[in-house]
Amino acid sequence: MIPPLHWLDDEFAVSLLDQTALPEQENWLRIETPEAMAIAIRSLAVRGAPAIGIAAAFGVALALRDQEERPARELLEHVSGSIDLLAATRPTAVNLFYALERMRQVLDEWEGGGFEGGTALLRARLLKEAQSIFAEDQDAGRRLGEFGLELLGDASTILTHCHTGGVATSGYGTALAPIILAKERGRPLRAFVDETRPLLQGSRITAWELMKAGVDATLITDSMAAHVMQQGLVDAVIVGADRIAANGDVANKIGTYGLAVLADAHGIPFYVSAPVSTIDLGTASGQDIVIEERDAEEVRRGFGKLTAPAGVDVYNPAFDVTPAELVDAIITERGVIRAPYGQSLRMVCESTLPARASA
């Protein structure tokens, strides 16, 4: 397992793997403030829906670094402002808002207690909540792997998109979790890895992570996926999710919708693997999901080299929405669910125990 960050307890700081430097360098950034964490999230130094939520939660805890002398009311406003700052970093991944809401609840409970216990108590409670979010996601990743392996059955070759491994979560990943778990158990499971334009998360991070795990991985460009399916080289497609609407529509990295259409055309099952925290019952359908649009230079001048006319207009959505009817199953840490998703998503959110797989 490769977690995206480590909490440095003795230093009250975060050591965060800079994913923008992968695979050439494995740089660890020292994060000491909510402002620095917000920059890390916005710049994609930390990315992947669960990892963003985890990082943001620790970012809130960092608001209490070196704040012993602040009056209680001023401290309350400082932490609340830090939550707002982190919430404004990226709009699509619901895990960010799930984690920050949990941190805000801790702050509200502390305020409701009349500021008893002072800064030390609030700092301890915020840190404990962030660590709980991390631990829960780690457990969820292993369960996702268990359920994913059950669902795959005799499948031997998987196609995946973007990056959904350890550094996108807290260690095991989401869509990569069954592949990593299969390797641990000595089961051969091959992966085709989409490079994932324009920021190449698949080629830079997924391929790197699978190679470190000893998985048989083959990198392809995004435009090769149809050919690979046509040649009968893929048994299933597994992707992650940044937000799953109440009707089962799935927002994920741009290019996911195209893969779902291709899988449907070739009779290949298309699975989504995501923790329950990614499910947003408050969003009715994919039409209501805010899609982040990123800087045009990511397309015109990828990684510093001009690859298009400098003045050409660019449309650069970071995500797309796959309609529920193209999703054969959604793998969660509480079980595998299928259509009708309006009912099954609500049921899995209300449950507390996994349907079958053991942790």
Keywords:
Four Helix Bundle (Hemerythrin (Met), subunit A); Rossmann fold; 7-stranded mixed beta sheet; 4-stranded mixed beta sheet; 14 strands
Structure described in brief:
The chain is α/β, with parallel strands linked by helices and 359 residues long.
Question: Your description of this structure?
Answer:
This protein has 359 residues and is an alpha/beta fold. It folds into 2 domains: 5-138, Up-down Bundle (Four Helix Bundle (Hemerythrin (Met), subunit A)); 146-350, Rossmann fold. Helix content is 40%, strand content 15%. It contains 11 helices and 14 strands. The protein has helices at residues 34-42, 49-61, 72-87, 94-112, 118-152, 177-184, 201-212, 225-230, 256-265, 297-300, 341-350, and strands at residues 5-8, 13-17, 28-31, 157-160, 190-194, 217-220, 236-239, 243-245, 250-253, 270-273, 279-280, 319-322, 329-332, 335-337. The strands form 3 sheets. A 7-stranded mixed beta sheet has the order 6-5-4-7-10-13-14, with helices on both faces. A hairpin with a 2-residue loop joins strand 13 and strand 14. Helix 1 (34-42) packs parallel to helix 3 (72-87) and helix 5 crosses helix 6. The chain starts with a strand and ends in a 9-residue tail after the last helix. 50% of the residues are buried.
